Amino acid sequence: MSALILAGTASGCGKTTVTLGLLSALRRRGLRVQPFKVGPDYLDTAWHTAVTGVASRNLDGFMLPEPTLNVLFTTHMQRADVAIVEGVMGLYDGYGTDPYYCSSAGLAKQLGLPVILLVDGKAVSTSIAATVMGFQHFDPGLNIAGVIVNRVSSESHFQLLKQAIERYCGIPVPGYVPFVEAVQLPERHLGLVTARESMVNTPAWQDFAARLEQTLDIDRLLAIADRATPPPGQWPPMPSRDAGAGLTLALAEDEAFNFYYPDNLMLLAQAGVNIVRFSPLHDHTLPVCQMLWLGGGYPELYARTLAANTPMLTQIRAAHRRGVAIYAECGGLMYLGSTLTDADGEVHEMVGIIPGHSRMGTRLIRFGYCEAQAREDTLLAAAGETLRGHEFHYSDFTPQREAMLDCHKTRDGEILKRWQGGWQAGSAFASYLHLHFGQRPTLLNRWFSAARAAL
Length: 455
Fold this sequence. Notes:
Blueprint: E1 3-8, H1 15-28, E2 33-38, H2 43-52, E3 57-59, H3 66-77, E4 82-90, H4 104-111, E5 115-120, H5 127-138, E6 144-152, H6 155-169, E7 176-178, H7 193-200, H8 203-215, H9 218-225, E8 248-252, E9 257-259, H10 262-270, E10 274-278, E11 291-294, E12 296-297, H11 303-308, H12 310-321, E13 325-329, H13 331-336, E14 339-341, E15 347-349, E16 356-360, E17 366-374, E18 386-393, E19 395-399, E20 405-411, E21 414-421, E22 423-425, E23 428-431, E24 434-435, H14 444-452
Parallel strand pairs: 1-4, 1-5, 2-3, 2-4, 5-6, 6-7, 8-10, 8-11, 11-13, 13-23, 14-16
Antiparallel strand pairs: 9-12, 14-15, 16-19, 17-18, 17-20, 18-24, 20-21, 22-23
């Protein structure tokens, strides 16, 4: 198995840009590349997918039990020549102060993958060796197998940095990344797959990938990747292969709704569900279905268009009255609410299935991992069951009915915050929580059971 983790010294050090360039360079060699991302992020995986044409997968140690994460990784590797795993934050940054819980370092050890450490070369010379040495000595048992230097000003500058790292740290430096302003990713991701595809296909991005083939020793990186050893893994209890047979899921997918883990869709398809995509923005007809999923995204940016598409609003309301089993996450919750107030203060009428009002703010309302225990039976969890997920939203939802989930956020074993969320109205359930179904795939049986009432 050939795989490596590209980790960084901190957030913002250029991991995503360099990952995309490396993915492009490997594809230009004709290799079958499987991208992955450490953690729950939807945005970076969308860039990966746009570059490679292969669905990037999330490797999340909070939502996924270790055996499940391992088997998902090895399953997706079966058709690939090499995997590139983009790390999260800094190498030892995860959830709390444990350097191995939900961190790139922890995943590298769990999966037996070599680490390529990305360090910033701007305005530094020999001191860069001290930075690398600190990451080495923090855990001498971690396999930091190579270093790539980002934002290098010239070939002579790189040679100085390379000699310092190899002399004082004993780690190979298989190349560098020059600073190219034209390929900097925008600070605000709009979640538009089409925009990402057009951006990574621009001449500037193509030139950047070609240039990396000159400044990175791709053969050396591939040799390092060959050091990976496949981990043991095991599938958790799964829905039967025909649990979803005869059911059709209408999946909202357009500029406003596009945050879905490919593994979630894979689990639904493996259970026999027929998945049909539609656009709440552009379509006027809802596909015939017994299940409906409205994922996360950016409905606030398209609220006027969503509100103006009255045929779709009407059809979703009618589907709810027929008992279609509707699940909504984050942006989907905002769409199912009564109104949405955008960043300009304009109020837009939404579907109105979940009574309540969304309002955009200027700061994150909640961000990070959390656990949610069902107070009563819901579409995905029975009373008393716990779901593990994450929230990331600038909007807040003012409900007009009682919440169904008791949520809390912990760090290093201490509960930092408690709140309530998740609302159910008949056969519809919506919350801010993003979930990976791999944590307990049998939870889908509840959704299937509710959907069969609409047959």
